[in-house]
Amino acid sequence: MSYKSKLKKIKRMPPGEIRWRISRLINQRRERRDWRGQLGPAGKTWPKCNGDLLKRCQRLVPGTQSESWDSSPEIASMLSDYRRKSRLNAESIMEGKWLMLGHPFDLTGVIDWHCDSRTGFQWKREFYSDIPLYNLPGETDVKYPWELSRHQFLPELARDYQLNGSDRSAEYARELMLDWIVQNPLYEGVNWTSGLEVAMRAISWIWTLAGLGSWEGWSEQDLDIIGGSLREHAVYLAGNFSTYSSPYNHLIGEAAGLLCIATLFDEGPLENSWKRKSREVLLDSGPKQFYSDGFCVEQAMGYHYYTLGFLVIGWLASKTIGEPLDQLGKVIHTGFQVGASFRQPDGRWPAIGDLDSARAIPVSVDDYWCFDSLQNLAAVLFDDPHLKTGENAPGQELFWLTGSSGVSSWMKLESFSTPSVNVVYQDSGYAIGSNESDWMLFDAGSIAHGLFGDGTPSTAHGHADTLQVLYCFEKQLILNDGGMPYYGGDQDWVAYFRSPAAHNTIHIDGVDLVRRAGRLAWSHEVARPELEASMTSTTWLCRGTVQWPGVCLERFVCCIPGKGLWIADVIKATERRRAEWYWQLPNRQINLSDPGMAKWDNMSLSCLSSGEPIQSSIDRFDESKPEGWRCLGYGEKDPGCRLRIQQSVHGQLLTLTSIGPADRGQISVRVGDLSLGEGGSVAGEYSVRIGQCEWLFPPLAEISG
User: CA–CA distance from 572 to each of 266, 552, 554, 555 (Å)?
Assistant: First the structure.
C-alpha cells in the first residue's frame, strides 16, 4: 500500500481503531521479547494437562463418543459409508496424494511447514510480523503453507482410526502434530502470521484429539506438549484478534477457535479471560456479519457459509459448557435460511465473490459448492425441515457435531420437494427466482461492506459484478459466475476475475463500478444501485439502476420459467462512450453465426440494439489468458466460454438480449420512448411491465406452454 493510501486509511480511522492499532504494536513488542527468550518445547512452560483433555475434546465433537452410537440399521449403513471414505482419505494422505487448493501435497517423509511446495519458496523462520506474505517471486502463494498448517487432514486420519481401527493413521496424526510443534515455535514463521490460520489449526487439533480419544498410543508427554501448544495458540489469538484489520470471517473464526480452546482447560484467570473475550466478540460481531436480510456483508457465497460454520462451532461450544449464546441462534438460523434460497436446481450454489475453498468445520467434502451437508446440520440444530436437503444421508458435519441422536432427528424431519423460491433481499441486493428446473439470480447490491466512495482503499471479498444475471434453464447452467482462481498468483488473473469482464454484466468506458486499489482492495465504489423486483411463480421481473455523472445504466430483466430470459439494458450518456457486454457461457461448441447471435446445442443467445451495428467475439479458454476460464476452486480452473459484445453509446441506447431455447418465440420491448423488437410486432401479444419497461410477448398460451 502506498504512503498516500496509508494516510487516507489513517484519516478514516475512528479513535477506537487508532487505540487498537497502538495496542497491537505494544503487544507485538512484548511478543518479540518472548520469542527471543523462548526455550524448549511448548508444553514445558505450561501446567501439565489433566488426564481428561481427550474427553474434553470429545465434548466439543459428540459424534466421536462411539459408546453413544446408535445401533440402528440406518446409522450402521451411514457409518459403513463413512468407513469407506475415511479409509480412502487416509490412504491418500499417507501415500502423498492429498489434494488441497488444486495441488497434491506429499505428506510423507520430512515436511517443510514453511514452504510453498509448488514453487519451493521458503519463508524464513523469524518473528512473524517481519515475514513478507505477498509480492513474492513467481507464483508463490502464502495460502499453500497456510492451508497445509490448517491441519484439516488430521481429523481424516483420526476418523480412519475411530471407524476402521487403523493404528497407523492414529500414529501418523500424532507424528504430524508433534513435528509441526517442533518446527513452529510460538511467534516464529509464516504459520503464525494470521490469527485465522491459528484458530483453524486449533480446531483441527481438537477434532483430531477427539477422534483419537480412545487410542492407547498417547503418552502423558505427548498430551502435555500438544496441550501446551494449544494454550499458546490461545495466547496468540487473545492478543491478535482482527478487530479492525479484518472484522469479518477472520474475526469470527478467531473468536470461535479461542472459545474452543478455553473450554479444554481448568478455569483459571487466564482461561476465563479467553472465554470472556471470545464470547464478547461472537455476541457483538456475529450479527454484524450479515445484512438485515441475512446474507453475508462480504457479498461472497463461500464466505457466507464459512462464517456460518465458525458461528456454529462457537455457538455449540458455548452450549457445551452451559453458557449458551442464545442471541446468536436467530442470526445463524436466518443465515442458513437465506443461504438455502441461493441453491441452484443442480444442487450447487453460485460462485459469487472471492473464495479460498475453505470450510470452517474440518470435514472433507466431495464438492465445495454443495452446502447440503451444512444445511442439514442447521435443519436439526433449529428443528427446521425447510432447511433439509437430500434424502440419502445428512452429511458428516451433522454426525460428528450431534452424534447418532442428531442423525435420528434429521431422519424424522419432514422432507419437502424442491420448493419454488421467489425472494428479494433488498438490503444485500439480490433477487432470486427458482423452481425445480429453472433458476435466476439478479445482483443489484453493493460490491461489499466497508468500501468508500473516494480513494480510501479497503480489502473486500466482493467482486465488481453489479447488475450481473446468473441463469439455469432446465437444470443446465447457462449464465455462470467466473469464480476466483487464487489470491497470490498472477495478479493479472486476479484483477480479471474480480472485474466486470468475468461476470454477466456491462462495462462502460470512463466509468467504473469500483476501482482496483491493490491485491484484494477496492476504492471509489459507486453509489449502490437501486433495486426493484417482482418475483412470482410465473414471471421473474427485476430492475437495477446505476448512475455516474453523465451516465445512467438501467438493466431490466424478465424471466419466464421454462421459456427463457430477456434482458433490456438502457444506457444514457452525455458523450460518446464504448460499452461492453460480457456473457459467461458453458463450455460448448458455440457458433457465432451473426453479430450478437450465439448458438449451442438447442440454446441460443441473441442481442439486438437500437444504435449502431454491434460487434461481437467469443473468447475460448487458452492457457495464456484468463478469458474463457471458470475458477470454481482455489488453484483450479475449468474451461468455459465468454461472449463479448461491443456497442457505441451516445444519447440513449436500448439493447435487448434474449437467452433460452431456440424456439422460445419472439418478443418486443418498450422502455419509455425507446422500442425494440425481434421480428416486429406479434399478433395477439400480451405485455409484462416493470417500471417504465414493457415486454411484449406472443399470446400467453404459447408462452406458458
Answer: 67, 5, 9, 12
Which part of the chain is CATH 1.50.10.100? 3-13+47-412
Q: Which three cell numbers stand for residue 481?
A: 459466475
- Please name the CATH architecture into which domain 3-13+47-412 falls: Alpha/alpha barrel (1.50)
3-state helix, strand, coil in the chain (%, to 5): 40, 25, 40
Cell of 44: 514445558
Q: Do residues 478 and 471 touch, judged by C-beta distance below 8 A?
A: yes
Enumerate the CATH 2.70.98.70 domain ranges in the chain, comma separated: 421-704
Q: How many CA atoms lie within 13 A of 21 on its CB side?
A: 11
Would you call 379 helix, strand, or coil by DSSP? helix
pLDDT digits (tens, 9 = 90+) for 548-586: 999 999 999 999 999 999 999 999 999 999 999 999 999
So what's the pLDDT on residue 699? 62
Give the side-chain half-sphere CA count within 13 A for 354: 22
Q: Which of 230, 234, 253 is nearest to 359 (CA)?
A: 253
> Is the separation of the CB atoms in 628 and 642 below 8 Å?
yes
In angstroms, rounded to a whole number, what is the distance separating the alpha carbons of residues 197 and 176? 17
Tens-place pLDDT, residues 324-352: 999 999 999 999 999 999 999 999 999 99
Say what the pTM is. 0.95
3-state helix/strand/coil string of 648-667: EEEEEEEEEEEEEECCCCCC
**Amino acid symbol at 364:** S
* CATH T-level assignment (fold) for domain 421-704: Beta-galactosidase; Chain A, domain 5 (2.70.98)
What backbone torsions phi and psi does residue 37 show, to the nearest 5 degrees?
Answer: -100, 10
- Find, among 131, 109, 115, the residue nearest to 35 by Cα: 131
Residue 554 phi/psi, 5° resolution?
A: -120, 130
3-state secondary structure of 424: strand
What gap in Å lies between CA 596 and CA 647, rounded to an integer? 11
The half-sphere exposure of 478 on its side-chain side, counting CA atoms within 13 A, is 26
Q: Which three cell numbers stand for residue 584?
A: 459467461
C-alpha cell at 527: 453509489
| Contacts for 525 with CB less than 8 Å, ≥ 6 apart | 446, 447, 451, 452, 453, 513, 514
Determine how many CB atoms are found less than 10 A away from the CB of residue 592. Answer: 14
